[in-house]
Amino acid sequence: MKMAASCLAVAVNKPHISMTPSQLLFIIVLLVGTTNLSTASSPLKHFSTKTPYAWITSSKTTELVDDEMYHLTDVEGLSCSAVHANAVIRHGSRFPGLDDVLEISNVHEKLVVAMEPDVNPELYNWVNNFPSNNNKALSSLGEEEQEALGSRLAKKLHTLFSDEDFSNFKFMVSSAERTKQSASAFFEGLSTVVQGEEDDADDFDVEVNDELLRFFDLCKKYVYSVGNNKTAMKEYTTFMNSHQVVKIKDKMSEKLGISKDILTTANVRLIYLICGYETASFKSSPWCSLLDEEDMVILEYLGDLKHYYKNGYGHDITWQQSCPLLNEMFYVMDETIVEIETTEDDEEMDGFIVGHFAFGHAETVGPLLSALGLFNDSEPLLAGNFEQQEKRLFRTSEILPFSSNVLFVLYECVPEEFGEDEEIDEADYYLRLFVNEVPVKIPGCEELSCPYKTVRGLYHSFVEECDFKKICNSSHPKDEL
After folding, report:
1. Does a structural domain hold residue 422?
2. Count of H-run helices and E-run strands, the chain
3. Is 206 helix (H, G, I), strand (E, B) or coil?
């Protein structure tokens, strides 16, 4: 076989680490209606993991091309078409957690007592419209995100998915209701394209699998050494109390005409989060009037620090614990290749899985990205190097927003001159990786398209040597640090 897209064999045991009319209208209304935010250079993109997917992908999804993911055009001498899609997807935009809903009301009450009514009337008269009985549930925007994502992927892989029976698709979710809601909305978008109309809900079958999608709850070493260990997040807490965030707090106090000791830096972060949540759910938020774009950039870095150490490269156990998930992705692709080869020899075979879609959390997708060696900066994110990290790769607003997704597409390749009636002993298989629908180079590969066997070798430790119990056994809460 002639390979133009060769790959470098590198060890990854430790990584080096068409928009629909309704979506377009929503974005236009959002940007026009949010008068409290800068219109010259919108800071909507700076909400870290609380960024709605449409805010960072709108420019990438305005023009859809059918089957744009279906063929490979960069593999010389081979004709390649997609045979399988395997994705891990974060749930869509959600409502804030109950703690944040209650706490922002407490902050508001504190401000109402301290400020004059005419200083910021909209904020003074603000009413908390977040449902207190809908803790972290998917919002309507989240449903729209997922339905649109399902529709777009079905169009980009139209020939692969068209006319397929849904028994040839597999959907996996965590036990959290928002992942089930996300999968259901995604299925609606997918089935509408695949079948020409929204499919009967009875055809939608999901598997609940927390072992693969909520491994962060089951890995004792991670829970002890990171999840429940405050020192694991020391860079985050240090930056929370840095002069940059204190300056934002003081500016807020001046805007409201209140004493500087009323708000805390933790209040500042909460205000930033609620600004994002409300803008996503209700088109605008008076809390945003307290933030300038330079403030948003600083608070975005605060969020990046949190997730760098909670869901990224900050501690080895964080990405190591995702090995069962990556192992499963390669196992399914291995099985797909075997079944393709078997199906070609046995016409009675029912087919193979053409789409495998798993729906999890930021704590699912973040470690997976790091295990793959993606978006890894040469210098770690620290409380003291904010200015040096202006062009960092690990920017969660862009790589880990709501509905973020990691997609492997597996391609079967035959010689270009291969005729329909000719037989071939064994096809070649290539992989391409997409993050948030954008192709990215697999670390260790020279081209975007990389031979499957080579990629599988790069992640050998995850495919062949994944021992979750051994990785996660821990007897000391601080043994990772």
Report:
1. yes
2. 21, 9
3. strand
What's the burial of 457, exposed, middle or buried (CB within 10 Å: 0-12/13-18/19+)?
middle
For 234-246, give the DSSP string.
HHHHHHHTSHHHH
Q: How far apart are CA 463 and CA 303, in angstroms?
A: 31
Q: Counting Cβ atoms within 10 Å, is residue 125 exposed (0-12), middle (13-18) or buried (19+)? A: exposed
Strand residue runs (E) in 198-279: 206-208
* d(C-alpha 268, C-alpha 245), whole Å: 8
Cβ atoms < 10 Å from Cβ of 159: 12
Q: What is the mean pLDDT of residues 67-81?
A: 93
Kindly give the interhelix angle for 265-282 and 140-156, rounded to the nearest 10 degrees. 60
Of 1 and 121, more confident: 121
Q: Please report where in the chains the tokens 């291969």 appear, as a residue.
A: 418
> Residue 475 — very low, low, confident or very high, per pLDDT cuts 50/70/90?
low
Residues written for the chain: 481
Domains of the chain: total: 1
Query: Within a domain: residue 240?
Result: no
- The answer to the question of residue 118 being in a domain is no
What does the alpha-carbon distance between residue 68 and residue 57 come to, in Å, rounded to a whole number?
17
With a threshold of 0.85, does the pTM exceed it? Answer: yes
Tokens of 9: 């064999």
Give pLDDT, residue 38. 31
Which structure tokens are listed for 176?
């959290």
3-state class of 138 per DSSP?
strand
What is the amino acid identity at position 115? M
> What beta strand segments (E) does 136-222 contain?
169-173, 206-208
| 292 in a structural domain | no
Convert the pLDDT of each residue in 262-321 to its tens digit.
999 999 999 999 999 999 988 899 999 999 999 999 999 999 999 999 999 999 999 999
A 10 A CB-CB count for 381 gives: 25
Task: Look at residue 194 and give its three-state secondary structure.
Answer: helix
List, for residues 93-114, the tens digit of each pLDDT value.
999 999 999 999 999 999 999 9
Q: What's the domain range around 467?
A: 21-95+136-229+312-472
Cβ atoms of 457 and 201 within 8 Å: the answer is no
Give burial (CB, 10 Å; 0-12/13-18/19+) of 197.
exposed
Here the CATH number for the domain that contains residue 151 is 3.40.50.1240
419 pLDDT more than 70: no
| pLDDT at 88 (0 to 100) | 98
Q: Tell me how far apart the alpha carbons of residues 430 and 88 are, in angstroms, rounded to a whole number.
A: 19
Name the nearest CA neighbour of 283 among 26, 13, 15: 26
* DSSP letter assigned to residue 1: -
